[in-house]
């Protein structure tokens, strides 16, 4: 799989290491709600620590910390200040765990984001990648496509579409192609493998075609349906994808 080796001009660079793919299929957990007290994710440092340890035991070595950001409810500055406080509370735990991390956000796709001249600080730390949550699984794809185009016309950033498995319109190949033509990265939640037949098959196909660059747990709590679950999905993916296909994932 590609392993991030460094950054230049604000972009992630990576190298391939097929040996690691065969042995373990390592990837970044690119979507988590582990920062304590930020949103409907971890409620305190103790819960965050348990989630980090759980991911670590399951072979995850790097996480993106991506709390929800809603621009119609809170200014970017206020969000960043809250995020910094939450991070400071978790910092020593993160260091102790040895888990690599990058601060980020899961930015809700709504026109209120255009109130801000600069979205750089919402991007995944050290990159120009913005994790964008489309407004609704029921929305018109045109609405989402237009908003993405508008973001690209205003900001020098690259969009990673969060959990594309959650949007039925992304299963329509014609619509999906329109999104790929906008030059966006895509992220799948690992539990797409528990979804219905069509979602599962289509997402596997998109993975095989190299359209998906990021996987994530989108973990919110230490217990329940949104707990950090990696191991069972990793073995399923290893069984379904070739080494070359696994290599396309960060
Ligand atoms: Fe999320």
Short recap of the structure:
This protein is α/β, with parallel strands linked by helices. 36% of the residues lie in helices and 19% in strands.
Structure description:
This protein is α/β, with parallel strands linked by helices. The protein has one domain (2-247): TIM Barrel (Alpha-Beta Barrel). Helix content is 36%, strand content 19%. It has helices at residues 18-23, 45-57, 76-97, 141-154, 173-180, 197-208, 231-240, 243-247; strands at 2-8, 11-16, 29-32, 62-65, 68-69, 100-103, 106-108, 129-133, 158-161, 185-189, 214-216. Helix 2 links the parallel strand 3 and strand 4. Helix 2 packs across helix 3. It binds fe (ii) ion (FE2). The site of fe (ii) ion (FE2) has 4 residues, from loops.
